[in-house]
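Reopening closed ticket. The problem is back. First fold of the pair:
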Amino acid sequence: MKITRLGALYQLSFLPRIFPVNCYLVEQDDGLTLIDAALPFSKNGILDAARQIGKPITRIVLTHAHDDHVGSLDALKETLPDVPVYISARDARLLSGDVSLDPGEPNTPIRGGVPKKLKTRADVTLADGDRVGSLLAVAVPGHTPGSMAFLDTRSRAMIAGDAMQTRGGTAVSGQVKPLFPFPALATWNRQAALASARKLRECLPTLLAVGHGRMLDDPLQAIDSAILTAERTLAKNGKGA
């Protein structure tokens, strides 16, 4: 595991040279907010990082319900049973393996590793605009129907989950980067993902932190380029799925 700190944000990267999977610890006045739970073997690394920082984990917030973002969730809840789990109301269904679509949602299959044996359920469900400590919940559907990003209102650091990637090049979810195609292959709807990337850009983030790849300081130019590429690709292909 590799730990990278930028201000109050700590990136914990598992398998960073092979298949980087990131989760994050955000320092708050009352302790640490864990964003995502990485891989099944990640519990000890997450707890060790919290001990090094010297603050307790007081909440667990999930960007979405894919296996590589909830992998150690059950193990963490066994160790931290009183720590509440937050996820969007929409992706709370995915925690139980429910991949049915809501009326009005694009009729494209939910892709990626949706958990099938996860025991943990949400203690708190989130909607766009909700606050979790210093974090503003930003609904960014596309990778999954209920994906969320979290903007730290103190620094404007954006923890975006898989709404974008930086491994293999900065890209909007659903846009294949040959050096790391996996987030694209696990994306539910590319047109929705593009709209969400534009929404992220409107938040004017000073830092972009994603599920796969390094953090980007001053990311607006990279985000603009990724949005332009996605727009061109979708226009060329003439479809949004």
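Second fold of the pair, where the issue appears:
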Amino acid sequence: MSWIYLVIAGLFETGFATCLGKAQESEGATAIYWYVGFALCLTVSMLLLWKATQVLPIGTAYAVWTGIGAVGTVVMGIWLFAEPVAFWRMFFLATLIASIIGLKAVTKG
């Protein structure tokens, strides 16, 4: 169950980064809604990360959490913010995904 918490926490990390990006593009009440989304996603992400670290080693959990958040944020950046899709960017994104899978494979818990 701790791995499920960790994956969901990583997705909420993507959510808070995305909300922050959208808030910076917005003005007025719309920006406030994005900042509220940022705070909610941040809170849920941290609570789930904390829950996962009750079973998983902190080093592994933190690396996987940030890795999922990083991959998700790059994908959202490409999709929502028209960030570039370049060969080397995708190459290193793939190595990051492989590293996350590798950590999962070698960690007990």
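Update: turned out to be a display glitch only; the data is intact. The chain has a mean pLDDT of 96. The chain has four helices and no strands. Please close again.
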